[in-house]
Design brief:
By secondary structure, the protein is α/β, with parallel strands linked by helices. Among the domains are: 242 residues, ANL, N-terminal domain (Rossmann fold); 104 residues, 2-Layer Sandwich (GMP Synthetase, Chain A, domain 3), CATH 3.30.300. 30% of the residues lie in helices and 24% in strands. It is built from 17 helices and 26 strands. The strands form 5 sheets. The protein has a 9-stranded mixed beta sheet, with helices on both faces. An 8-stranded mixed beta sheet has the order 7-6-5-3-4-8-9-19. A 4-stranded antiparallel beta sheet has the order 17-18-20-21. The protein is globular, with a radius of gyration of 24 Å.
């Protein structure tokens, strides 16, 4: 102990737990009438949003919900989903569990049981699926129906029947709009629970804490370039990594959250033009939706819109088309375990003078760490030593910092494995460039080993994307008696685009070594998750079937 420690202990006056709840409380006091939420014809100011969150919190407390209790939600991008991000943790430290609305009943039942859910709030769009899940589950939560007054008349299907014991508005009516929410006892307390996709078995429950959520909200403001009063459009599902923490982010700058139930080109363009949207997020499929929209669905707008996208880097042709349409694309990278994206392709103005090929090479990188991520490294997974920063040597991407999950719920073995050696092991393979920028080469499970040679599926996909007719593609390993594995490409062509299997293979040979080129090209729609990510596990199964059919 030194003189800088003695008599200078932490006290309530100088040390309070970090939590994103404080951001909403502050903005509600300063900007009570500024639009906080737009949902169809509804306009709610910050005073109303805070009051609704207080009502939800106090109503849950009145129902016996408290610290460590799980409140599950099956909701679309609607106001109750925003309420839940604040109101649930305000209920004495309860934990929000957002369920993927495209999950099957068995998956939802597993999550409800594993999380020991005490409450389930269900949008009536999903009531039939929820009812099946509840019939399979062992837990018996309080079920609350949300009947959305803004449910579109042109919806693809009608709302389901109520399955709960009360309506969401009735639950809010039980609460107190002047409820005095107390901060978490510890910023390490859990704030939310998100399940991984579970493509190789039961999903793992990723636990976030208040500190990480608060820091990620500030990170998003900085790295997404959110000035005062941004207008954020919900094209990203809020159930996905808590919407990359943007429900907690937007209030920091007194912004407006524009709800969107379905990703449809016309609705997106209308929102951008009518509400002055400045920011949105989404997978590459959302960009395709915008660029390929019919002319009568598109609308002009004067502002440039920041489009944050994760997954594979967008092809240069897509970036150019998005820029022409009024969108500036920011490329991000992260995982559920890192609160969503925690790496940004931060553009260096010095690269503006590079030739197009040089600029494209730098845009293909995932980038550098967010400010609150302490370290981002590419390591040898066996020795935990950094690989040479030469842009060639392959290693595993590892993270360390305050925006890494607490761990996996009720799974100490998986948590210990993920944190081995004091780093979070991502399972992604990458290189480190001399300037400190990381570039993904593949998931460890997606590397194709052909005749003893490692082939990056991403490298093959990048070459395919250079073909003007290719809209989406994915490359996976196909079993081969001769080579062990060979690349197999699955391709969606652009509307009006034409190409043949031999033509695309020849296109690949023009830019890749022969052994890296696909041995087969299969045309047709690609299977995707609800967030637009291509399901490679399904394509690997199809490639295996193709291989069997060829023998």
């Amino acid at each position: 102990m030194t003189e800088y420690d003695e008599g200078l202990e932490r006290a309530a006056a100088n040390h309070q737990p970090m939590t994103p709840i404080s951001y909403l409380r502050r903005t509600a006091r300063i900007h009570p009438d500024h639009p906080a939420v737009i949902h169809g014809r509804q306009r709610h100011g910050y005073a109303r949003l805070w009051a609704d969150c207080c009502r939800l919190a106090s109503a849950l407390l009145g129902r016996g919900i408290g610290r460590g209790d799980t409140v599950s939600v099956l909701l679309s991008n609607t106001p109750p989903m925003i309420h839940a991000h604040f109101g649930v943790p305000m209920a004495g430290g309860a934990v929000l569990h957002s369920i993927n609305t495209r999950s099957d009943p068995a998956t939802v039942a597993f999550q409800l049981d594993h999380a020991e859910s005490r409450v389930l709030i269900v949008d009536r769009e999903f009531s039939a699926m929820a009812a099946e899940a509840l019939a399979l589950a062992g837990v018996r939560p309080l079920v609350v129906d949300f009947d959305d007054a803004e449910y579109p008349d042109d919806a693809p299907h009608p709302k389901g029947e109520p399955i709960g014991s009360l309506d969401y508005e009735q639950l809010l009516a039980e609460g107190d709009p002047d409820f005095a929410a107390t901060p978490p006892g510890d910023e390490w307390d859990a704030i939310s629970l998100n399940y991984t996709s579970g493509t190789t078995g039961n999903p793992k429950g990723v636990v976030y804490h208040h500190r990480g959520a608060a820091l990620m909200a500030l990170n998003n403001v900085i790295h997404a370039g959110m000035g005062r009063h941004p207008v954020y459009l919900w094209t990203l599902p809020m159930f996905h990594c808590n919407g990359w923490c943007f429900p907690w982010t937007v209030p920091v700058q007194a912004g407006t959250q524009v709800c969107l139930r379905w990703v449809r080109a016309g609705a997106i363009f209308d929102a951008i033009a009518d509400h002055g949207v400045t920011h949105l997020c989404g997978a590459p499929i959302v960009m395709s939706t915008l660029l390929n929209a019919a002319a009568d669905r598109k609308r002009g707008f004067p502002q440039q819109v920041t489009f944050n996208t994760a997954a594979a880097p967008p092809p240069e042709t897509v970036l150019q088309a998005m820029a022409k349409a009024g969108f500036g694309v920011t490329h991000l990278y992260g995982l559920t375990e890192t609160y969503g994206p925690a790496v940004v392709n931060e553009w260096n103005p010095g690269w503006d003078g590079l030739p197009p090929s040089g600029q494209a090479a730098r845009k293909a990188r995932q980038g550098v760490r967010y400010l609150s991520l302490d370290e981002l490294a590419v390591m040898d997974p066996e020795t935990l030593q950094p690989v040479p920063a030469d842009g060639r040597t392959l290693g595993e991407v590892m993270f360390r910092g305050n925006v890494v999950m607490k761990g996996y719920l009720k799974n100490p073995e998986a948590t210990a494995a993920a944190f081995a050696g004091g780093w979070f092991h991502s399972g992604d393979l990458a290189v480190m460039h001399p300037d400190g920028y990381v570039q993904l080469k593949d998931r460890s499970k997606d590397i194709i080993i052909s005749g003893g040679e490692n082939i990056s599926s991403i490298e093959v996909e990048e070459q395919l994307y250079r073909h003007p007719a290719v809209a989406l593609c994915a490359v996976v390993a196909m079993p081969s008696e001769k080579w062990g594995e060979t690349p197999c490409a699955f391709v969606e062509l652009r509307e009006g685009g034409e190409e043949t299997e031999p033509g695309l293979i020849a296109h690949c040979r023009a830019g890749l070594a022969g052994y890296k080129c696909p041995s087969r090209v299969v045309f047709g729609p690609l299977p995707k998750t609800s967030t637009g990510k291509i399901q490679k596990f399904a394509l690997r199964a199809r490639a295996a079937e193709l291989a069997r059919a060829m023998t």
